[in-house]
Specification:
The chain has 428 residues and is mainly β. It has one domain: Tachylectin-2, Chain A (5 Propeller). Helices cover 2% and strands 40% of the residues. It contains one helix and 26 strands. The strands form eight sheets. Strands 3-26-23-22 form a four-stranded antiparallel beta sheet, with no helix packed on it. It has a four-stranded antiparallel beta sheet with strand order 4-5-6-7, with no helix packed on it. A hairpin with a 2-residue loop joins strand 24 and strand 25.
């Protein structure tokens, strides 16, 4: 840690347990003071199998299967992957019926054969289909259209002990519980300081909102996992809250909620990477996002963090450089829900692997690696992950609900990529 001079940091307001309090916010210097551990010598990883779902694949509705790498979970009871497309093609501007997709992945040597089994549409408590369109009702207290439809941008999925599904809604941020048939059981709102509010303290879920606090627009809970006890859920936010500096902030947050009450029980700062692993090449917070989370035990997680580069539909994309999985420990970090004096201590991070370093041609990687799931419990420090990317529906023609939408953004048709990765956790 630097020594020899004092550092002065600005003080910002934070909603904490429903009230405003002052914290010492470290901004850019925070990342320099608490650098993550880059120790690949004590960790190993390799791709053992790979597969692709074509960009023009379609489901039983005749709809284009896209975006399914936004979130993934392995269902051991059926030996399938449950995949989450986000809000659809066109970033919420093309009508899309949100769903989860059951995918069968069969390994043959180093090849993964991928087959769409079925799509299950999400419906609200009254059985009405949800929509991926951007909310347009500025007076609503939940993300919705003026016609009353629930708007959902699903980004992560988990299986509860009773077999029901938990799904994050980035438009909220909210956590939804669904039956396996896609019908909504319950909505769990995030704490007040995560909800998108204007300077006038008004909730606004629309894309035109001028937010002062809460999650940034389209920067909600990207990662989510049930804790091993099945009673608590952990969420990782894509970027900093507005009161922390928004997408330009060098840190975001991990939040733990009690599932029975919906109340927050733990909250930690997560420092976003500052340099490309193993190099002096700086990374810009604006180029980075946190995209998925796996809970290993009560204080240990795997977290997926990435840049925005890779195949994005253009003919000449910037090659992917940073799609990193970290081992994260909260045991020595400051729980922000407990008032304490001094500077909060963030979580610690140890690099497991950076995906572009594991492939022969990083130029072929999709940009938005957002999903990862354990295929078996970690044993003797050894893990096997399924890792996948959101292809953003990048195909020249998108089929949705019987209609065809030309998608000029897709000069390059990007398949949905899956990697099975095995490795060993670093020794403590």
């Amino acid at each position: 840690m630097p020594s020899g001079k004092s550092l002065d940091f600005p003080t910002l307001s934070l909603y904490e347990a429903g009230a405003l309090m002052k914290i010492n916010f470290l901004l850019a210097a925070f990342a320099a003071l608490f650098s993550p551990v880059l120790d690949p010598l004590h960790a190993s990883a390799e791709i053992v199998a790979a597969g692709e779902l074509p960009a023009d694949a379609r489901d039983q509705f005749g709809d284009t299967v896209g975006g399914i790498g936004s979130g993934v979970i392995y269902d051991a009871t059926t030996d399938t992957l449950l995949c989450i497309p986000d809000r659809g093609a066109g970033d919420g501007t093309i009508p899309f019926r949100p769903r989860y997709i059951v995918l069968k992945a069969t390994k043959s040597g180093e090849k993964l054969d991928l087959k769409v089994v079925e799509s299950i549409l999400f419906r609200d408590e009254e059985g009405r289909e949800m929509t991926g369109l951007i909310p347009d009702d500025p007076e609503a207290t939940t993300p919705r259209m003026k016609d009353g439809r629930t708007c959902i941008d699903p980004e992560a999925i988990a299986i509860a002990p009773d077999g029901t599904l938990y799904v994050t809604n980035e438009y909220g941020p909210d956590l939804y519980q669904f039956q396996r048939d896609g019908k909504l059981i319950r909505r769990i709102a995030m704490p007040e300081w995560y909800r998108p509010k204007t300077a006038a303290d008004k909730i606004d879920f629309t894309a035109e909102a001028q937010l002062a606090t809460g999650r940034n627009i389209n920067q909600g809970a990207e990662g989510m996992a049930l804790m091993p006890d099945g009673k608590t859920v952990a969420l990782a936010f894509q970027s900093g809250l507005m009161q922390d500096g928004g997408h330009a902030s060098p840190l975001t947050r991990i939040l733990l909620l009690d599932l029975q009450s919906g109340e927050p029980v733990e909250e930690y700062y997560y420092p976003i990477a500052t340099h490309l692993p193993g190099t002096d090449t700086p990374l810009k917070p604006d180029d980075l996002s946190v995209n998925d989370l796996i809970a290993l035990d009560a204080h240990t997680f795997l977290i997926l963090e990435r840049d925005r580069f890779g195949r994005t539909g253009t003919k000449t994309p910037t090659p992917a450089a940073f799609k990193a999985v970290w081992l994260v420990d909260t045991s020595k970090a400051t729980n922000l829900l407990k008032k304490s004096e001094g500077t909060p201590t963030p979580v610690t991070k140890t690099l497991l692997f950076n995906l572009p370093a594991l492939v022969k041609d990083p130029g072929q990687l999709a940009a938005k690696w957002e999903g990862m799931a354990l295929l078996a419990p970690v044993k003797d420090g050894k893990y096997t992950l399924m890792m996948t990317a959101d292809n953003d529906f990048l195909t020249p023609e998108v089929h949705q609900d019987g209609k065809v939408y030309p998608f000029p953004r897709a000069e390059d048709a990007v398949p949905t990529q899956f990697f099975e990765i095995s490795g060993e956790l670093p020794q403590s």
